[in-house]
UniProtKB/TrEMBL annotation, chain A:
Gene symbol of the encoding locus: URM1
Location of the protein in the cell: Cytoplasm
Gene3D superfamilies: 3.10.20.30
A Pfam family it matches: Urm1
Cross-link type Glycyl lysine isopeptide (Gly-Lys) (interchain with K-? in acceptor proteins), residue numbers: G106
InterPro entries: Beta-grasp_dom_sf (IPR012675), Mopterin_synth/thiamin_S_b (IPR016155), Urm1 (IPR015221)
Name of the protein in its database record: Ubiquitin-related modifier 1
Keyword tRNA processing carried by entry: yes
Entry's Gene Ontology cellular component terms: cytosol
Role description: Acts as a sulfur carrier required for 2-thiolation of mcm(5)S(2)U at tRNA wobble positions of cytosolic tRNA(Lys), tRNA(Glu) and tRNA(Gln). Serves as sulfur donor in tRNA 2-thiolation reaction by being thiocarboxylated (-COSH) at its C-terminus by the MOCS3 homolog UBA4. The sulfur is then transferred to tRNA to form 2-thiolation of mcm(5)S(2)U. Prior mcm(5) tRNA modification by the elongator complex is required for 2-thiolation. Also acts as a ubiquitin-like protein (UBL) that is covalently conjugated via an isopeptide bond to lysine residues of target proteins such as AHP1.
UniProt keywords, alphabetically: Cytoplasm, Isopeptide bond, tRNA processing, Ubl conjugation pathway
Source species: Orbilia blumenaviensis
Positions where 1-thioglycine occurs in the chain: G106
Post-translational modification: C-terminal thiocarboxylation occurs in 2 steps, it is first acyl-adenylated (-COAMP) via the hesA/moeB/thiF part of UBA4, then thiocarboxylated (-COSH) via the rhodanese domain of UBA4.
Pathway involvement of the protein, from the record: tRNA modification; 5-methoxycarbonylmethyl-2-thiouridine-tRNA biosynthesis
From TrEMBL, chain B:
Pathway in which the depicted protein is active: Cofactor biosynthesis; molybdopterin biosynthesis; tRNA modification; 5-methoxycarbonylmethyl-2-thiouridine-tRNA biosynthesis
Comp. bias intervals (Acidic residues): 45-55
PROSITE patterns, alphabetized: RHODANESE_3
E.C. no: 2.7.7.80, 2.8.1.11
Gene3D superfamilies: NAD(P)-binding Rossmann-like Domain, Rhodanese-like domain
Positions bound to ATP: G104, D125, S132, N133, L134, H135, R136, K149, D193, S194
Subcellular location, record wording: Cytoplasm, Cytosol
GO terms (BP aspect): Mo-molybdopterin cofactor biosynthetic process; protein urmylation; tRNA wobble position uridine thiolation
GO cellular component: cytosol
Enzyme type, top EC level: transferase
Protein name: Adenylyltransferase and sulfurtransferase uba4
Top-level taxonomic group: Eukaryota
GO MF, any single term: metal ion binding
Length: 106, 509
């Protein structure tokens, strides 16, 4: 049981891929239970990505105060995460989580 | 399959054309009466320099708006669409649209809106046309370099369509002037390039009840959203992004780069959204119906059918994101909508017209200052200017020259004997623990990267494009504690200064 994982797809856009060695898509297998024994949620995923997948050391470009920094939209299967419970949303197998940095150029 | 649909489409079009021709005949009298008004719209090649600042003398009084024969010809291809029609075209002609920014988004957006026959088009920009604009800002041309962008874009737009009234706002939009500038328009397009202007424009649109089409682009990505639409119902920019991004994370097109057609596509999409917003106000009820559908002979059950359609459904709000190099470049994502605690558009909003007009709202500060804290200050002995460094090089005392631009830019042009260590790599250097006097005891030695000199007598110089990242590099290398005793300096102003003051043959970009 403890080896169970939740396979999800993480997509990065708007320049966030630069923090992940220019990878726009990551296949991530999250543990089905976190160390605290909870089901992994978005906030857990954010930390997991910082620790395991991010190549850039500037963690603050992605995570601040236990969740994504301001200026990053999080989309759970193409819907704003605020429609799904934000950081508390518990990840389901085959979810696609898209992190998009807001752009300002024009 | 094709034949069938073409056949029926053909018939539809014939009906539409017949209908328009009949309407044309009816309007003809009005056209004649109105011919004086239209004469003032004719483009005069000599008055391109003229900057119209006043919106007041409108010869387009709502009810007086008519189309002349040339306009039927010019707009016919879009008028025969059921989404437009004569009522739609008249609505466009009555409309006043403001584009803020005459750059990569504003140029294509303005071109299509001018082409579509918007009655009044205002453009705000305080910049001058630069050569680096031309790859994407398609209304500006080589001979316009150095001219104000508003003047350049309006002269190009007049060549596409002389009919609209064009208004040049050749100044930067500020909290103080934004209300007065936006007030006279029906719809606003945010084609700017910084977070602070985006919040400011959104706030002004909320206070004035104007819908706002907002888009942005960087590198190969774009985003598009229609805000405050319909006014009071749709979310505003603050609802979507309640907190501004940290200034360190904000990149302009100049810093991050941008692909011309990517920003162009976003600008074109903005013009489509603008037309949709404007056309939704057209009074389609006045449209003449084919005889078999005219109300007096409509079968009784027809009315019930239309009633059933009117089940109110809460409006959903979407954002379109474009990622040119992705497998699925276009995606539409569903947004949360209006925020109950929004500072600008909720019942508990604190932002007012007064607070904008009197300048008490500081958008630059709200967004964390203009790159404040982005680039660390250096001591005098940590900086060397390009001339001094050139002398050292000539005396073969140039030490190690580290260019911290990314490998793409390094591959474009680089100084001889410089080595490339991108700033992103420098930022992965470990940070040495602070020396607090107590001996750290067992400490695993950190491997020194191969590109750093082992010899403390070799000076290390950092350079980049403009002299910003190289400052970060100086500070970061010092913090790493990996080099002891070496001179570490930033070459002030970077390759840009080098090209201007030392070697004019070095490419500026």
């Amino acid at each position: 049981m403890s080896t169970d994982t939740i396979p999800i797809k993480v997509e990065l856009a708007g320049g966030l891929e630069l923090l992940f060695d220019n990878e726009k898509t990551l296949n991530v297998d999250l543990p089905a239970k976190t160390e605290a024994g909870d089901a992994p949620n978005i906030n857990y995923l954010v930390d997991y990505l910082c620790v395991h997948r991010m190549k850039d050391t500037r963690r603050e470009m992605f995570e601040i105060n236990g969740t994504v920094r301001a200026g990053i939209l999080v989309l759970i299967n193409d819907a704003d995460w605020e429609l799904e419970g934000e950081g508390e949303y518990e990840l389901q197998p085959k979810d696609t989580i898209l992190f998009v940095s807001t752009l300002h150029g024009g | 399959m094709e034949k069938f649909s073409l056949g029926s489409e053909n018939l539809d079009l014939r009906i539409r054309i017949a209908e328009l021709e009949r309407e044309l005949a009816e309007y003809r009298s009005g056209t004649v009466a109105n011919s004086n008004g239209h004469a003032t719209h004719a483009v005069n090649e000599d008055d391109e320099d003229e900057e119209e600042e006043d919106l007041a003398p409108q010869n387009q009084d709502d009810k007086a708006v008519r189309l002349d024969l040339d306009e039927f010809r010019r707009y016919g291809r879009q008028m025969i669409m059921s989404e437009v029609g004569l009522d739609g075209q008249l609505q466009l002609k009555r409309s006043k649209v403001l584009l803020i920014g005459a750059g990569g988004l504003g140029c294509p957006a303005a071109a299509y809106l001018a082409g579509a026959g918007i009655g009044t088009i205002g453009i705000v920009d305080h910049d001058l046309v630069e050569p680096s604009n031309l790859h994407r800002q398609i209304m500006h041309t080589v001979e316009k370099v150095g001219q104000p962008k508003v003047k350049s874009i309006i002269s190009s737009l007049k060549r596409i369509n002389p009919n609209p009234k064009y208004i040049a706002h050749n100044y930067a939009l500020t909290p103080e002037n934004s209300i007065d500038t936006l007030e006279k328009y029906d719809l606003v397009l945010d084609c700017t390039d910084s977070p602070q202007t985006r919040y400011m424009i959104s706030d002004a649109c909320i206070l004035l009840g104007k819908p706002l089409v907002s888009a942005s682009a960087l590198r190969s990505d774009g985003q598009l959203v229609v805000l405050n639409n319909p006014p009071g119902e749709g979310p505003c920019y603050r609802c979507v992004f309640p907190r501004p991004p940290p200034p360190d994370s904000v990149l302009s097109c100049g810093e991050g780069g941008v692909l011309g057609p990517v920003v162009g596509a976003m600008g074109v999409l903005m013009s489509t959204e603008a037309l949709k917003v404007l056309l939704s106000k057209a009074d389609k009820k006045k449209r003449r119906k084919p005889a078999h559908l005219s109300p007096d002979i409509r079968p009784a059950d027809a009315k019930d059918a239309t009633k059933k359609e009117e089940t109110p459904e809460p409006k959903k709000f979407y954002m379109t994101i474009y990622s040119a190099f992705s497998e699925t470049p276009f995606r539409t994502i569903r947004m949360f909508g209006k925020r109950k605690t929004c500072q600008a558009c909720s019942p508990v909003a604190t932002i007012t017209k007064e607070s904008m007009k009197n300048g008490s709202l500081d958008y630059v500060a709200f967004c964390g200052g203009k790159g404040s804290g982005k680039y660390p200050p250096l001591r005098k002995d940590e900086i060397i200017n390009v001339e001094e460094y050139n002398k050292l090089r000539e005396n073969k005392e140039g030490g190690i020259l580290i260019d911290v631009r990314d490998d793409i830019q390094f591959g474009m042009c680089a100084l001889e004997n410089s080595i490339n260590v991108p700033i992103t790599t420098i930022l992965t250097l470990p940070i040495a623990p602070e020396n607090d006097g107590t001996d750290g005891g067992e400490r695993t030695p950190i491997p020194i990267p191969s590109w750093l000199p082992r010899d403390a007598s070799i000076p290390i110089y950092f350079i980049c494009r403009l002299g910003n990242d190289s400052r970060i590099a100086v500070q970061r290398l010092k913090k790493s504690g990996l080099v002891k005793g070496n001179v570490i300096k930033d070459i002030k102003g970077g390759l840009w200064e080098w090209s201007r003051k030392v070697d004019k043959s070095f490419p500026l970009y």
